[in-house]
Amino acid sequence: MRANYKMQRLFVPDDLAPNAEFEAGQQQSHYLLHVLRLAEGAEILVFNGRDGEWSATIAAKTKRSVRLKVLASQRPQPSRADLIYCFAPLKQGRLDYLVQKAVEMGAGILQPVITQHTQVAKPSIDRLRANVVEAAEQCGILAVPDVREAEKFERLLGNWDRERRLIFCDEDASSDNPLSALRAVEESRLALLVGPEGGFSDDERKVLRTLPFVTAIPLGPRILRADTAAVAALALIQATIGDW
Prior knowledge:
Elements: E1 9-11, E2 21-23, H1 26-35, E3 43-47, E4 53-61, E5 66-75, E6 83-87, H2 92-104, E7 109-114, H3 125-139, E8 146-147, E9 151-152, H4 153-158, E10 165-169, H5 179-183, E11 190-194, H6 202-210, E12 214-217, H7 226-240
Parallel strand pairs: 1-3, 6-7, 6-11, 7-8, 7-9, 10-11, 10-12
Antiparallel strand pairs: 2-5, 3-4, 4-5
């Protein structure tokens, strides 16, 4: 069932059930009161990543707070997408964009990876999660992706589930066409690894190319920025062997 894009959507931490009531958080109340300027009785859609999507009404409000009352179920809770997006963190503004687009493109888990050329060694997990929620609210996504703590490149590969195919964007690939490599993938459980602005180091590429669960793909004849490469690679995977 597709999302209703005519109504405002709000992520809430509270359990959702008929006639349940709860106070919206401080930021959410500010948004409903002073940005949307909604009156008592106005209806919105709420979701929590567990109980599906529900209609809710503004049951009461003050100058600073809003009380919501849950009305009726609108969409059941789907399972989370089984696509892991592994990425080297970028600088803040572009990292926000990258995370939001990964959510829109169907990533179920976001895994920051610290490589030799990574620019940001300690990304803010809270900020990443806030961007995930914002993208889910805007795009009708109910199964909110999980954001994991950053892992070093070597540890990520050392602990990898060999039954999950890891696809990585190889800027030094001998071909410009990724389709043949993707069509050869037989696994249904997938992950994508996109490197930092400076690309993977020679040693990192050598390691990746020797692993049996890794598939290298090119992204065409042009050099792409890391955030652009992420969107391009996710689109290719979803269209070729994903859920499109």
